[in-house]
Specification:
It contains 19 helices and no strands. Helix 3 packs across helix 5 (about 85-95) and helix 15 packs antiparallel against helix 16. The protein has about 400 residues and is an all-alpha fold. The protein is about 60% helix and about 0% strand.
Length: about 400
């Protein structure tokens, strides 16, 4: 790899890999179960119509069965929530099916829907998956969020670890990645480990459950948390000095950095000479020491780092000289770093809709122009009002085209 290329990696993909690895610790095939349910109804309108009767009978709100796809980052949580919401109707449907006793998909679904263990795992996943998905949603934003990456990775790990590790154990370590989370003495007991209120209520209302079933459930939950945490520490760039240094972009985290950590970024991304590096160090120290109230307004609820740093770049000293000239130049470079593949994935989705089967002969230039309009025009198509010059140019092009055909 070229030394001038900095590989951040896609944190959304990394979070999804962590979830997939943790799901594999569950003793029941949650993924396969969701796929079986979807494809049972997908190709049969008759089955869907029959299912509506069971929704009415069980007083279940009529909602569509969602397709689960491992490559979709947010798929699992939505599918688990929808299946739990439809559980009474689906359970009644598969139990009443004429082929429920025959080996195959229908029999598998019936067995899973009548399993208390499977319901417990679904309720647990509904509780725990939003933690990862909230992180994922943040870094799918179109805004540059690279300045929040290190802080949010640490917060995610701390939040996940706090579900099953004692507070004393976590706070005793200055580096959260060094916590011995697999030691049973450092973990909560079964009454305090986080599994969600829905699971707790179910266990309380069903005290006749076999003790072995309950014991196996909590053992699986511990392994789920341990695997998730272990994979996060392995996959996420917690120790990357560049990612940590880029945290200077977030004014709420600037006090945790030293000027040297900020200056080290210039060696990576800017070709500064000794004098410029010295000036950058002075500006970084001044920025870190300046109280937040003396910097341009920053609203944590609408965390636009681009807007904040544009304001920083416009600050001037009484002499008229820019106050943070070199620091602002550094910020423009690092703000351009992508933090996930979300924008690229969205572009591919747009391309698929533009170059559909009826339009598979579009020229590359035309596709490029349509993509440019789609990406760079944030308004809805019915609200778009072209400039008079554009309309005039389009009419001229149309006239020339007609003329060439005559």
């Amino acid at each position: 790899m070229s030394p001038s290329v900095f590989n951040v990696g896609c944190v959304c993909h990394l979070a999804n890999l962590c979830a997939q690895k943790a799901i594999k610790t569950l003793p029941l095939p949650v993924d396969d179960f969701l796929v079986d349910i979807y494809y049972h109804f997908h190709h049969s309108s008759t089955r869907r119509e029959n299912y509506k009767q069971f929704q009415e009978f069980t007083e279940t709100d009529p909602m569509k069965i969602i397709k689960h796809c491992n490559t979709r980052w947010l798929s699992l949580e939505r599918c688990v929530q929808r299946t739990l919401q439809q559980w009474p109707a689906l359970k009644s449907y598969f139990q009443s099916h004429a082929e429920c006793e025959k080996p195959g998909r229908i029999n598998r679904c019936m067995q899973h829907f009548t399993s208390d263990q499977m319901w417990l795992y679904f309720a647990f996943l509904e509780f725990v998956m939003p933690i990862l998905n909230d992180f994922n949603v943040m870094f799918q934003a179109g805004e540059s969020m690279i300045g929040y990456l290190h802080t949010e990775m640490v917060r995610l790990l701390r939040k996940m670890m706090g579900k099953f590790v004692t507070t004393m154990t976590i706070t005793a370590q200055s580096d959260i990645t060094k916590v011995d989370f697999r030691c049973k003495d450092n973990q909560h007991d079964n009454t305090r480990i986080a599994v969600g209120m829905k699971v707790r209520e179910f266990l309380s209302d069903n005290d006749d459950l076999a003790p072995q079933t309950v014991s196996n459930f909590f053992s699986t939950v511990r392994e789920f948390y341990c695997t998730m945490t272990e994979t996060m520490i392995k996959k996420f760039p917690f120790q990357d000095k560049v990612i940590r240094g880029i945290s200077f972009l977030n004014p709420l985290s600037k006090d945790k950095l030293s000027p040297d950590e900020v200056v080290s970024l210039s060696d990576r991304f800017l070709n500064y000479n000794q004098q410029e590096t010295s000036q950058l160090e002075d500006e970084a120290a001044e920025y870190i020491l300046t109280p937040l109230c003396d910097l341009p307004a920053f609203d944590p609820d609408t965390p636009s780092l681009n807007q904040f740093w544009t304001s920083i770049g416009n600050l001037k000293l009484p002499t008229g000289k820019l106050q943070f000239q070199h620091l602002f130049a550094l910020s423009k470079v690092v703000l351009a770093l992508p933090h996930s593949n979300a924008d690229t994935e969205r572009t591919f989705s747009m391309l698929k809709k533009i170059q559909a089967d009826p339009r598979d002969n579009l020229a590359d230039k035309t596709i490029h122009s349509l993509l440019s309009v789609k990406i760079n025009n944030p308004t809805d198509c019915h609200q778009y009002k072209p400039e008079p010059e554009l309309v005039k140019a389009a009419k001229s092009a149309c006239a020339l085209y007609k003329q060439s055909l005559s």
